[in-house]
Amino acid sequence: MNQQPGQGINRVGLGAAFEADEARKSGLILEAQLLREQARDDEAARKFAEAAQIEESLSQRCTTLGLAEKSFLHSFSALSLWAQAGAFYQAIALGDELLSSAALPEQLRQRVQTYTNTLRLRRALWYQDLAKAMAQSAA
Amino acid sequence: MNGALDEYRLEDIALDHRIGADIFVPFVIARLQGEELATETILTVTLRDAVNATDRQKQLRLHWSSYSAPTQPFGVQERTVTEWAALGLACVILARYTSSRISQVAAVGDRFDFWVSDGNREFGLEVSGTLTDEIEARHRIKVRQWRENPYEVDGYVIVAGFSENKIICSFHRFEEEMQ
Lengths: 139, 179
Prior knowledge:
A: mainly alpha; 5 helices; B: 179 residues; alpha/beta
């Protein structure tokens, strides 16, 4: 299959160290996904959080290299990974940071907006459930 | 159909893709080896160029070491075994039939599973597996899903049908398909 794709995200100029970190975070995500499927949630969350930290670093390095689209890609992934680690605060803060960028493409802006809105709603529901559960356990 | 039989060693996905793809190997074997504990199978691969509306069919002999077979239950649902087996086969098909390699796992919300790279640019790859023979219907659903990617990038869609050991691998250009 010799079809050469055309419309993609520029990754020219990234070195071996960057690629090694991309590979490491990908391995962590796959391991975390498998652990989550196996209901090993604490181990999964730890790996999701480690991968999120790597994604934030990758995003910053792309910004430095002038690769704005790729920087957004890694930031959005970090947002998603923090959410999967159960870290609402970091995920929403990253979402707000992305939305503050005028260069964020419109389709991605809508996706980030929906994601952060959903996280805020889930956080409120989660806290209601937590407060109710704690009250019941104290009664 | 091309009469020649292509070959690929399943364990090589770990070398061809840098994402820790070895994790998929036992899942692929679980879905393909059958009760006789085979160490090879023949896959019928359709390489679909959606841009030019052409199909090419290939016969692929996929083989593996018996040492790579799962030795204990995965502890996951059957649908997860099927999806992860499909992810492993996607690694096989990309490596054998394209010049693209998986560069990283995509995020929840990207609307595809992996980013693939030709060395200079990254594109999407959406993958799915099914135990039914409705592989074309699943493929259409997955193409629609790929079109929702917020980066508006070109990409591949690969669907594996384990009831008949068939695979569809298609390539799509975002702008042309959205017109």
